[in-house]
Write a structure and sequence with these properties.
Helix content is 45%, strand content 16%. It contains 6 helices and 3 strands, in the order ααββααβαα. It has a 3-stranded mixed sheet with strand order 1-2-3. It is α+β, with helices and mostly antiparallel strands. The protein starts with 18 loop residues before the first helix and ends in a 7-residue tail after the last helix.
């Protein structure tokens, strides 16, 4: 049986990550979280900062990892990503002690805006005019 040109292997969408990418991303996320939790980062901007690595997306060849970070509490996620980018070589070295890959992935850090988006949607859903439209007919608050 011959496949059409451009058809995708399996039932995944064109941009959906493979199981291998998902497993590797979670492994990198946990290892980076362990490194950060130890508190051995010497960068003054990161030393006293609490943040979370919320997700790691791996490239199909597992050579690049995009790490999404969010400050705990209130803080500037863009500045946090920039600070982590400055120490990414050191983080990559620490990561190599935690996980074993054929090639250690290059790390890039991006601010995670999913929490901000969820908060904006929550605020929108709690507006009186939206709540009125979402309530069932005949139902009063």
């Amino acid at each position: 049986m011959q496949r059409k040109p451009g058809s995708n292997k399996g039932h995944r969408g064109a941009n959906a990550p493979s199981q291998r990418q998902l497993r590797a991303g979670e492994l990198v996320r946990r290892a980076l979280s362990d490194v950060v939790t130890r508190g051995t980062i010497r960068d003054p901007e990161l030393a006293e900062r609490s943040f979370s690595i919320t997700e790691v997306r791996m490239s199909p060849d597992l050579r690049h990892a995009t790490c999404f970070v969010a400050p705990l509490g209130h803080g500037d996620a863009v500045a946090l990503a920039a600070a982590l980018t400055r120490v990414r070589a050191w983080l990559r070295g620490q990561l190599s002690k935690e996980v074993t890959f054929k090639f250690m992935p290059d790390l890039t850090f991006e601010p995670d805006t999913s929490f901000d988006n969820a908060e904006a949607i929550d605020r929108l859903l709690h507006k009186p005019e939206v709540a009125r439209d979402l309530s069932k007919p005949g139902e009063e608050d």
